[in-house]
Amino acid sequence: MASKKEFKKDVNFLTNEIVMRGMIHLEFFGDKNSEQIFEIMNNAVNSRNDYIARINQRLTGKDAKEVKSHFKSIYDDLLKSTHELLEKIDSLDIKVN
């Protein structure tokens, strides 16, 4: 990990991708599934806030291995939740005949 600042930028970027994908879905498909899309977008924003709080957490008294493990778990959780939320949005796509 390069820095906390860069890590926060990555979190914000991935969150913005989810929100933008939701907005695009709403634009193309209208009101169909709109409540579910808004719920997914809210989950993404709430997760973002949680990840930023975890990144900002003070780790005084921890050795390098514990600090690395802490940030690795945040990174893994971030990727997993981002992937799950994007799959949820994609599963709501309406088939066009």
Beta-strand level of the residues, as a percent range? under 5%
Give the strand tally: 0
> Could you tell me the radius of gyration in angstroms?
16 Å
Largest sheet: none
Helical element count? 3
Domain unit count = 1
Which consecutive residue ranges, at least 5 long each, have pLDDT under 50? none
- Coarse morphology: elongated
The separation of the N and C termini measures 46 Å
On the 0 to 100 scale, the average pLDDT is: 89
Query: Helix and strand succession?
Result: HHH
State the secondary-structure class.
mainly alpha
Question: What helical percentage do the residues reach?
Answer: over 70%
